[in-house]
Design brief:
Blueprint lengths: L17 E7 L7 H19 L4 E6 L13 E7 L7 H4 L9 H17 L7 E6 L15
InterPro entries: Dimeric_a/b-barrel, EthD_dom
GO molecular function: oxidoreductase activity
Protein name: EthD domain-containing protein
Protein backbone atom coordinates (compact mmCIF):
# COMPACT_ATOMS: atom_id res chain seq x y z
CA UNK A 1 0.00 0.00 0.00
CA UNK A 2 1.44 3.34 -1.01
CA UNK A 3 0.57 6.49 0.88
CA UNK A 4 -0.71 9.19 -1.50
CA UNK A 5 0.78 12.64 -1.41
CA UNK A 6 -0.83 15.05 1.05
CA UNK A 7 -3.15 17.69 -0.35
CA UNK A 8 -1.85 21.23 -0.23
CA UNK A 9 1.65 22.02 0.82
CA UNK A 10 3.63 22.70 3.94
CA UNK A 11 3.81 20.83 7.20
CA UNK A 12 0.86 18.83 8.48
CA UNK A 13 -0.97 18.68 5.13
CA UNK A 14 -4.13 16.56 4.91
CA UNK A 15 -3.83 13.19 3.15
CA UNK A 16 -6.24 12.67 0.24
CA UNK A 17 -9.15 10.33 0.90
CA UNK A 18 -10.62 9.56 4.29
CA UNK A 19 -9.77 7.45 7.30
CA UNK A 20 -12.16 5.07 8.98
CA UNK A 21 -11.23 4.79 12.66
CA UNK A 22 -12.66 1.49 13.92
CA UNK A 23 -13.07 0.80 17.64
CA UNK A 24 -12.96 -2.96 18.22
CA UNK A 25 -14.23 -4.80 21.28
CA UNK A 26 -13.46 -8.36 22.31
CA UNK A 27 -16.62 -10.45 22.79
CA UNK A 28 -17.38 -11.57 26.33
CA UNK A 29 -15.94 -15.01 26.95
CA UNK A 30 -13.38 -14.88 24.13
CA UNK A 31 -9.83 -15.40 25.35
CA UNK A 32 -7.74 -12.23 24.73
CA UNK A 33 -4.92 -14.08 22.96
CA UNK A 34 -7.36 -16.01 20.76
CA UNK A 35 -9.08 -12.71 19.91
CA UNK A 36 -5.76 -11.04 19.04
CA UNK A 37 -4.69 -13.99 16.90
CA UNK A 38 -7.97 -14.06 14.97
CA UNK A 39 -7.65 -10.31 14.34
CA UNK A 40 -3.94 -9.94 13.56
CA UNK A 41 -2.89 -13.37 12.29
CA UNK A 42 -6.00 -14.14 10.21
CA UNK A 43 -8.24 -11.13 9.56
CA UNK A 44 -5.58 -8.52 8.77
CA UNK A 45 -4.63 -10.03 5.42
CA UNK A 46 -8.28 -10.51 4.49
CA UNK A 47 -8.99 -6.82 5.20
CA UNK A 48 -5.99 -5.71 3.15
CA UNK A 49 -6.86 -8.05 0.27
CA UNK A 50 -10.58 -7.30 -0.06
CA UNK A 51 -10.85 -3.56 0.69
CA UNK A 52 -9.71 -0.63 -1.43
CA UNK A 53 -7.46 0.78 1.29
CA UNK A 54 -4.14 2.51 0.73
CA UNK A 55 -3.19 2.55 4.40
CA UNK A 56 -3.88 0.29 7.38
CA UNK A 57 -2.68 0.89 10.96
CA UNK A 58 -3.40 -1.39 13.93
CA UNK A 59 -3.30 -0.26 17.56
CA UNK A 60 -3.75 -2.93 20.24
CA UNK A 61 -5.28 -1.44 23.39
CA UNK A 62 -3.56 -2.72 26.52
CA UNK A 63 -5.64 -0.88 29.10
CA UNK A 64 -7.83 2.17 29.55
CA UNK A 65 -6.19 5.13 31.25
CA UNK A 66 -9.44 6.98 31.95
CA UNK A 67 -11.65 5.66 34.76
CA UNK A 68 -14.96 4.40 33.38
CA UNK A 69 -13.75 4.38 29.77
CA UNK A 70 -15.38 1.78 27.51
CA UNK A 71 -13.47 -1.47 27.16
CA UNK A 72 -11.73 -1.44 23.78
CA UNK A 73 -9.50 -4.20 22.45
CA UNK A 74 -8.06 -2.30 19.49
CA UNK A 75 -8.23 0.80 17.32
CA UNK A 76 -7.77 0.41 13.56
CA UNK A 77 -7.10 3.22 11.10
CA UNK A 78 -7.97 2.39 7.48
CA UNK A 79 -7.28 4.93 4.73
CA UNK A 80 -9.61 4.86 1.71
CA UNK A 81 -9.84 6.89 -1.51
CA UNK A 82 -12.47 9.66 -1.56
CA UNK A 83 -14.70 7.63 -3.91
CA UNK A 84 -15.12 4.97 -1.21
CA UNK A 85 -17.29 7.36 0.84
CA UNK A 86 -20.20 6.87 -1.56
CA UNK A 87 -19.27 3.93 -3.79
CA UNK A 88 -19.20 0.41 -2.36
CA UNK A 89 -17.23 -0.82 -5.38
CA UNK A 90 -14.49 1.74 -4.58
CA UNK A 91 -14.68 0.83 -0.87
CA UNK A 92 -13.91 -2.77 -1.74
CA UNK A 93 -11.42 -1.89 -4.50
CA UNK A 94 -13.48 -3.42 -7.31
CA UNK A 95 -13.22 -1.89 -10.79
CA UNK A 96 -16.79 -1.43 -12.10
CA UNK A 97 -15.50 -2.02 -15.65
CA UNK A 98 -14.78 -5.68 -14.88
CA UNK A 99 -17.16 -8.14 -16.50
CA UNK A 100 -17.54 -9.85 -13.14
CA UNK A 101 -17.64 -6.67 -10.98
CA UNK A 102 -20.83 -7.61 -9.10
CA UNK A 103 -19.63 -11.16 -8.44
CA UNK A 104 -16.24 -9.87 -7.27
CA UNK A 105 -17.90 -7.35 -4.95
CA UNK A 106 -20.01 -10.16 -3.46
CA UNK A 107 -16.93 -12.36 -3.04
CA UNK A 108 -15.13 -9.56 -1.20
CA UNK A 109 -18.05 -8.58 1.04
CA UNK A 110 -18.69 -12.24 1.90
CA UNK A 111 -15.00 -12.76 2.76
CA UNK A 112 -14.97 -9.65 4.95
CA UNK A 113 -18.19 -10.63 6.73
CA UNK A 114 -16.97 -14.17 7.40
CA UNK A 115 -13.63 -12.93 8.69
CA UNK A 116 -14.99 -10.22 11.01
CA UNK A 117 -17.45 -12.71 12.50
CA UNK A 118 -14.56 -14.85 13.80
CA UNK A 119 -13.46 -12.22 16.33
CA UNK A 120 -16.64 -10.25 17.03
CA UNK A 121 -16.04 -7.27 14.74
CA UNK A 122 -19.29 -7.94 12.89
CA UNK A 123 -21.17 -6.88 16.05
CA UNK A 124 -18.94 -5.05 18.49
CA UNK A 125 -17.54 -2.23 16.36
CA UNK A 126 -17.89 1.52 15.97
CA UNK A 127 -16.41 3.28 12.93
CA UNK A 128 -15.79 7.02 12.84
CA UNK A 129 -14.91 8.81 9.59
CA UNK A 130 -11.91 11.09 9.95
CA UNK A 131 -9.11 12.84 8.08
CA UNK A 132 -5.44 11.93 8.29
CA UNK A 133 -2.63 14.42 8.57
CA UNK A 134 0.99 13.46 8.16
CA UNK A 135 3.12 15.55 10.52
CA UNK A 136 6.18 16.97 8.87
CA UNK A 137 8.95 17.92 11.29
CA UNK A 138 10.50 21.34 10.75
CA UNK A 139 13.84 21.42 9.01
CA UNK A 140 16.74 20.82 11.37
CA UNK A 141 17.81 24.05 12.99
CA UNK A 142 14.87 26.14 11.74
CA UNK A 143 13.55 26.54 15.28
CA UNK A 144 16.90 27.92 16.36
CA UNK A 145 16.34 31.10 14.37
Amino acid sequence: MAMPAPQGSGPDARVRGFTGVALLRRPDGMDPEHWRSRWQDHHTQVAIDVQGTFGYVQNLVIRAVTPGAPALAAIVEEQFPDAAKSDIFAFYGVDRARDDAKAELKRRTDAMSASTATFGAAEKIDVVPASRYVPVPPAFGSALG
